[in-house]
Amino acid sequence: MLGLSSQIINFIFKICRIVSLHFQKKISLKRIGVDMRSGYWAEIKSCIIGGPSRVLNVRRLHPVKAQNVLIQACVHLKRMGVAFQCRIVGEGPIRQKIEALISETDLKDSVELMGARYEAEVRRISKCKHN
User: Of 32, 73, 85, 112, which residue is most buried, by most CB within 10 angstroms?
Assistant: First the structure.
């Protein structure tokens, strides 16, 4: 299955279950703004080299983007004892609300708000090793 390890597949299924419970409807993935089929992004391979699973969310911080749902999924992962690192790249009108939610849910060690970044920096962040 795309060369993914069983650890990452289980992690993805857990996230999908948590999000589907929240929305109770079909979920679709829309990649907007970055062509994942060409250039640098097409070369990215699955990379589990021990350590925590990684989540990278790159989008504007806006209510319609549902970062609050991502934070709640992280809360559930933490409760289940899943080791993970979540990075959120972007800026927007709900930054303070997201910061407060991260603080209230005691996720400061697992979830990082990185602010706006240029694509080159996002590429670096997306590489296998957390820098």
Answer: 73
Asked if 44 and 126 touch (Cβ cutoff 8 Å), the reply is yes
Nearest to 58 by CA among 114, 127, 120, 124: 114
pTM of the entire predicted model: 0.64
Structure tokens at 1: 């299955």
8 Å CB contact between 71 and 40: no
CB atoms within 10 A of CB 2: 7
How many CB atoms are closer than 10 A to CB 98?
19
> Residue 20 belongs to what H/E stretch?
helix 6-23
The C-alpha atoms of residue 9 and residue 32 are separated, in whole angstroms, by: 24
